[in-house]
Amino acid sequence: MARVTVEDCLDNVENRFKLVMISTQRARQLSRGSRDAQLPWENDKPTVMALREIAAGLVDHTVLDEPIEAPVRIRREGEPGMSFEE
């Protein structure tokens, strides 16, 4: 897994402030399961996956237009992603 840098993401986003807003929104979507990842999960956390998607040009500012409180989707057993079992 290659390391994702801010500079990689800034090729696709205007400035660092917008990058923070976009990556935060996208990471929330991924962690809640409301949207599927557009890249394969390589044992990444949602924040890293969000940055990888931005660096690849798969996610842009339009993610900010989507609601913050997306519906929660229960992941099936064996499905990749984070697990929040107690």
TrEMBL record:
Reaction it catalyzes: RNA(n) + a ribonucleoside 5'-triphosphate = RNA(n+1) + diphosphate
Class of this enzyme: transferase
Pfam family, one: RNA_pol_Rpb6
Gene Ontology cellular-component terms listed: DNA-directed RNA polymerase complex
Annotated keywords: DNA-directed RNA polymerase, Nucleotidyltransferase, Transcription, Transferase
GO molecular function, one term: DNA-directed RNA polymerase activity
E.C. no: 2.7.7.6
Entry-linked InterPro entries: DNA-dir_RNA_pol_omega (IPR003716), Pol_omega/Rpo6/RPB6 (IPR006110), RPB6/omega-like_sf (IPR036161)
Keyword Secreted: no
Similarity field: Belongs to the RNA polymerase subunit omega family.
Assembly and interaction partners: The RNAP catalytic core consists of 2 alpha, 1 beta, 1 beta' and 1 omega subunit. When a sigma factor is associated with the core the holoenzyme is formed, which can initiate transcription.
Function per UniProt: Promotes RNA polymerase assembly. Latches the N- and C-terminal regions of the beta' subunit thereby facilitating its interaction with the beta and alpha subunits.
HAMAP family: RNApol_bact_RpoZ (MF_00366)
NCBIfam families membership: rpoZ
Name of the molecule in the record: DNA-directed RNA polymerase subunit omega
Organism of derivation: Billgrantia bachuensis
